[in-house]
Amino acid sequence: MTHDFPATTSCLTALLAPLGVASEVHEGVDGVDEAFLALPGADLLVVNALRWTMTGPGVPDRYREQADAEGASPSAAARAAFADHLAGGGGVLAVHTAALCFDDWPEWGAALGARWVWGRSQHPPLGPEIDVSVVGDGDLVGGVEGFSLVDEVYGDMDLAGDLDPQLAAPQPVTDGRTMPLLWAREHGGGRVVYDALGHHPPSYAVPEHAEIVTRAARWALGGRGG
């Protein structure tokens, strides 16, 4: 199923506003470099996108055929700006398809702690409703109960060995293996949160998930925000 990024970006913008975050949205292929080059002076980078080369091992032909028009790879300047953002203590909130982004940039996957591997990584179709368990007790999820929602459960990604998952859920339809869905980590001097949920607006309409995303942004901001 396709992703309505303008709609989910609006959800994220609304959740960030009470924290005092004024969101600047960058879209399209050109928006990749624009977003990174706009980082100086910004406190938080939010990536809610599916921008990648559309080439490489295991990539289906249906994507390769779009690579000339839709493929994207951050420039050297954009990559340097990201490193500087982290080194300066900047925050990152990456959601859902962000783990598929920038597939020719190892540092991006290293920062998130997750990287989609074509031919191995997968998710069942959207629906039915999944039961999300709180498996940690940190700042992002403390006191929040498990919840149910309709979303995609990503699985079999290349994950860093030092992750401390805070949310997890079994994959429906398939073999029911439990997959980590959300974690927070420090990397390169900055604070990074990856939330594998967020396929569509109904995901952010679930109060528990909205609360966790808000906390995630606040944590990535170093505790700043309303």
Explain what you see.
It is a single chain. The chain is an alpha+beta fold. The protein has 8 helices and 9 strands. It has helices spanning 5-16, 30-37, 61-64, 67-70, 76-87, 106-112, 201-204, 207-220, and strands at 44-47, 91-95, 114-115, 130-134, 147-149, 158-159, 167-170, 178-187, 190-195. Strand 8 and strand 9 (190-195) form a beta hairpin. The longest helix has 14 residues, at 207-220. The mean pLDDT is 95.
Keywords:
29% helix; 7-stranded mixed β-sheet; 226 residues; two-stranded antiparallel sheet; alpha+beta; 8 helices
Uncertain segments are none
How many alpha or pi helices?
A: 8
Cα separation of the termini: 35 Å
**Helix amount, in percent?**
25-40%
SSE pattern:
HHEHHHEHEEEEEEEHH
What is the CA-atom radius of gyration, in angstroms? 16 Å
Task: Tell me, rounded to a whole number, the average pLDDT.
Answer: 95
Given the C-alpha coordinates, what overall shape results?
A: globular
Share in β-strands: 15-25%
Strand order of the largest sheet: 1-2-9-8-7-4-5
Strands, count: 9
What does the largest sheet look like?
7 strands, mixed
What structural class do the secondary elements suggest?
alpha+beta
